[in-house]
């Protein structure tokens, strides 16, 4: 029953988190793109750029509102579904979440209001400052939530207090500048920029195919292709940094992503494709690329990346040390309960082995008291530290493959924009339209790899997921899961309806002023060739 409870809690949080992240990447990227467009407007004083800012800003606003609403629900779940987790790490996890709330609900939301209602009340430069503050607020809001998430991956700057039975912060500086958090932040933000760039590129391509809003679409493609190409390239570079960070802080996840069952001689090869078999601990029909994984994971040619089998054996030893820590912890608790002085020897033994206490908690799945665990149960708990390899293996490779298509697509449009007078073949425009949802798929797969790959831990190496959940009934979880699913489905329909409505409507503000400027601009360009935005094939 308890396993079902935990799995249902995980399913509910995964559903709400993945749904929330449908809005986050577009918010991150579109806020910056809108600020760039308004910057060009202030610099050139051309009405078309003001119209572009308002049009894409409207779509940003729709997305932003639903993103905030779904984010609130997700944060409430820490107290509802994961109460022991909230108690255990609240001293550490609460601080960045509080900062994220301040950024999202005070700084970001305030400046979003000024952005939409301040066009005729602020000066051009003043409104531009507001636009950039919206972008900065959006990105800083993501920073704090990713600092919190990064701490779950690499719990630095905190230690377990045996007297309070909680994690307590020892260094806020270490929490903020956590290596895993910083790598996750820059990679996530860059992915959001790619999402927004492909969205603007796809919608603008649809306008060109329909012969509507040509000037706006051309300029939007120019901005989106340049911004998207730079962002897509940075995602690859920053993804490499994330891989190196994982080799230091999440060795089991990295080995599982690679289906690296045994430790290979340095430098390790990258498995391009294959069929992982977790029962046999073998990857069938594997195709390897020499040296690549070694370079990504170690930045060298002479360091090994440990395989799954070696890591499981290491975890057996960590479970044994965790049992020693657990025994010392029970002695400390017993002394406190009886009002006795805590034995110095017990305190010393605990301090020497406390880093592995979480591994003893893995035994709670098989035995109430980890000190009574058998050798077989210890081995079973060590085997539990291996996540499901097959879904991780393919989710990662699909994500990477999509990432390279984003580079090709934005690179092609950037080339056509820069060297082919902003004329684009129909096949490229249709490709851009079809490819609109692909960045979201890649982003969701990225979060799947990050979170599913951390299992069986909520806080890596410290708190197993099975111990983190609230003591709710399965019926309560099924009821709330059904309610969330229904509610989010309604919100999704509303979101898509509003987005499609305003995309079909097109730019509707500052129409007369912009049309007059466009006519004058076309007259100046009338002698140039290739006026059509669609490049027809040569006969």
From TrEMBL:
<feature type="transmembrane region" description="Helical">
    <location>
        <begin position="470"/>
        <end position="494"/>
    </location>
</feature>
<feature type="transmembrane region" description="Helical">
    <location>
        <begin position="427"/>
        <end position="450"/>
    </location>
</feature>
<keyword id="KW-1003">Cell membrane</keyword>
<feature type="transmembrane region" description="Helical">
    <location>
        <begin position="20"/>
        <end position="43"/>
    </location>
</feature>
<keyword id="KW-0479">Metal-binding</keyword>
<keyword id="KW-0349">Heme</keyword>
<keyword id="KW-0249">Electron transport</keyword>
<dbReference type="GO" id="GO:0016682">
    <property type="term" value="F:oxidoreductase activity, acting on diphenols and related substances as donors, oxygen as acceptor"/>
</dbReference>
<feature type="transmembrane region" description="Helical">
    <location>
        <begin position="55"/>
        <end position="73"/>
    </location>
</feature>
<dbReference type="Pfam" id="PF01654">
    <property type="entry name" value="Cyt_bd_oxida_I"/>
</dbReference>
<dbReference type="GO" id="GO:0020037">
    <property type="term" value="F:heme binding"/>
</dbReference>
<keyword id="KW-0560">Oxidoreductase</keyword>
<dbReference type="InterPro" id="IPR002585">
    <property type="entry name" value="Cyt-d_ubiquinol_oxidase_su_1"/>
</dbReference>
<feature type="transmembrane region" description="Helical">
    <location>
        <begin position="129"/>
        <end position="152"/>
    </location>
</feature>
<feature type="transmembrane region" description="Helical">
    <location>
        <begin position="191"/>
        <end position="209"/>
    </location>
</feature>
<keyword id="KW-0813">Transport</keyword>
<dbReference type="GO" id="GO:0019646">
    <property type="term" value="P:aerobic electron transport chain"/>
</dbReference>
<keyword id="KW-1133">Transmembrane helix</keyword>
<keyword id="KW-0408">Iron</keyword>
<dbReference type="GO" id="GO:0046872">
    <property type="term" value="F:metal ion binding"/>
</dbReference>
<keyword id="KW-0472">Membrane</keyword>
<keyword id="KW-0812">Transmembrane</keyword>
<feature type="transmembrane region" description="Helical">
    <location>
        <begin position="394"/>
        <end position="415"/>
    </location>
</feature>
<feature type="transmembrane region" description="Helical">
    <location>
        <begin position="93"/>
        <end position="117"/>
    </location>
</feature>
<feature type="transmembrane region" description="Helical">
    <location>
        <begin position="221"/>
        <end position="239"/>
    </location>
</feature>
<protein>
    <submittedName>
        <fullName>Cytochrome ubiquinol oxidase subunit I</fullName>
        <ecNumber>1.10.3.-</ecNumber>
    </submittedName>
</protein>
<dbReference type="GO" id="GO:0009055">
    <property type="term" value="F:electron transfer activity"/>
</dbReference>
<comment type="similarity">
    <text>Belongs to the cytochrome ubiquinol oxidase subunit 1 family.</text>
</comment>
<dbReference type="GO" id="GO:0070069">
    <property type="term" value="C:cytochrome complex"/>
</dbReference>
<keyword id="KW-0997">Cell inner membrane</keyword>
<dbReference type="GO" id="GO:0005886">
    <property type="term" value="C:plasma membrane"/>
</dbReference>
